[in-house]
Amino acid sequence: MQQLIINNASIRDDNYMSPVQSADTLFHFVSKLDYLSQIIERFAFVPRYCVENIDYLNINLKQSAYPMICFCDINLHRLHDHIHFYGGDGYGIAFEKRWGIKQAIQPVQYINPNSPLANDFKIAFNESIASDRDQPAQDYLLTQMFFLKPIQGTMDRNNSSVLKNFTDECEWRFIPDLRESEFPQVILEQDLFSSQTWNKAMESREDYWLKFQPDDVKYIILKSRDEIEDIIKILDDKKLDTKSINRLISKILIWEEMERDF
Question: From CA 123, how far away is CA 23, in angstroms rounded?
Fold first, then answer.
């Protein structure tokens, strides 16, 4: 594969430019081995409706929920705080950023609530909702909202409210297009109680999952070496060929060993 080097970044012949300041990897972390095992068993992520605080947008809504899968592009040596903030022990799976771009995974835009951008969004959103005509504009503004997050804010962690600088998350999101389905694209605050019901229903709708192939995996991150056998058993049950299994095993990283080196 031919490569062109520009300012220490490489452009491959598929027109993808590797980043210099961020990881060339999209990581997805979970808090339990069971959750990681389910992802590997399915070779897919099941989107879940996640509640987002959107009161900073001043659009007369405090919360809403959208179906998503979240990733981050934090460099390996800076992952410690991210993993521990979310209560995990170091379970994750990672993919090349180029794969994520092909899957329509989008980086989040962090917005300053005091900025002209925030003010213009508020005006356009409220006017669009009040109109019965501009459906494309409504769709655009709603989609943009799915990928907005404030620079900082509070979030609930362990039954308490914690102030968080969200830019540290370097977040990317996959949000399936559900507009032609029976699933709501967005759940408004008065209906948030239904989000878990919709999450359960999503588990049986593979057409809205984010799927991947074994060769797409860049890393599998486990807490300890004792858990490698658990992953091997899952791969054996998938009836993968020996070559594919060995390639996946070679991509396993052990967090409790890596962590001491950062």
Answer: 36
